[in-house]
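Marked as duplicate of an earlier ticket. Keeping the data here for the record.
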Amino acid sequence: MEDPLFMSEVAQTVVVQQEHEINMKSLKEKQLYMMNALGRVLNAVTLRHRLIEAAWESEVLSKVKCFFVCKKCVIRRKKPKLHELSVC
């Protein structure tokens, strides 16, 4: 992850909120609530990771497409069309 300190702060905040909500519960209920909180944190981390990966893949693909469009125009010795340059 790009900022693990931020994600750890988010996780700690969720855990503290859960602790305040379940002060008067039994041990099994406390464990269940904490497992649910941990599941939400892990889900957020996974989604954030997927979003970062998708952004990186999009950047790589746009650079590859731009490279081939520009190379094709150089080979044909013509100016690229406006819609072809919008990728670069």
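See parent ticket for discussion. The chain has one domain: 4-85.
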